[in-house]
């Protein structure tokens, strides 16, 4: 039995510690209230009551995704709110006007990215190697400009026609692989074809669906894509990072495997043999020529850019899986897509191509509706200087969370926002994109691959529904996660029913 006097001593110590903790909490929040106005006269954004060490991390609990918490915080404190998440000073920005101010009007004030250690380690200890997670720079501007011709192929150009052919070829391969006699795991099939579309379009390389090294690359990229889409408390409380060392080491090994595949199976001897007098035939040769003729960045930086782009197939493939997760429960939407296909290509007896987009608004609207419901967040921005949003002071190095979840799911902006209704994006037979629909960000840090997402998704959705109807598999739950594009490897099985009338010569 513990002596009574020891119990009393322990109690006194605990009481003293509790009093100190309460005093610290009260002092920190008193100090915050005294900072209502900055030195330049701009008001500081409001800040909720915070806790020592955690700051406002406790407010993120109880929500499917953090952006739902940001919506609640915005309703209580206003459209621009200061948060302290662990040791990271943050600002949550709600409302279309304020988000556009951050993305476009003052985009040059908020074009940096967070310094999360996880992202640093994913790119050999330097986030500047990444296309998505780097800060803005002249090198980043050049990398984006070099990509534009490939990620935004103009209609009626050779690159556009070539991409159309590659996508149709991939769809035909998918159609031949789909087994209609049992429920199938669609994700491996989709990822294989998306990967081949990317490698052929950007690298002029195509791989067999049985190539083990190619399949391993796809799996490694999918693992990494899932990882970067997870949120960890350690991103805001770095002292927790040692708990993730083993996983980070595993991810680092995956990146090394991918680099080996890229060098041995995609680049091969092209860096040494490319003739600088020739015009580049693909993105790989664009990078080679730039590295050899300009001093702006080296071959290592170019390889990271290439790997980032090839890895984009994971984003497209995971998005398509979520889209099919919606469609399998929406038989009427499938029927309308199939009617649209028949009305455009049925009489011609050919497959759907990306050149049909302007005549198939319902498929385009379906893609937009899936993007809206998924509500994948805009990559956080970081203030590169003292600035303001909606008249509130934004301090340099503040991490901005732009709450497009609220823009996508607000009942003030959308009728029945929880329902899957592609019709909301169609007016007078044409696709419309409301001003409050900002899934790909905006300004000079907007998503570089969003047009590829739209084009490939259109080709695959149109191609598969031209040949099949999706039917739910017995005992399969189609609960599509929101707030991220990533899905686990083993996800969603579907039954495919072959349509009696298809318009292909295959």
TrEMBL record:
The chain crosses the membrane at residues 6-27. It comes from the Eukaryota. Its cofactor is heme. The keyword Metal-binding applies. Heme binds at residue 447. InterPro entries: Cyt_P450, Cyt_P450_CS, Cyt_P450_E_grp-I, Cyt_P450_sf. The keyword Transcription does not apply. One of its GO terms (molecular function) is monooxygenase activity. Keywords: Heme, Iron, Membrane, Metal-binding, Monooxygenase, Oxidoreductase, Transmembrane, Transmembrane helix. PANTHER family: CYTOCHROME P450 307B1, HEME-BINDING MONOOXYGENASE FAMILY. Belongs to the cytochrome P450 family. This is Cytochrome P450.
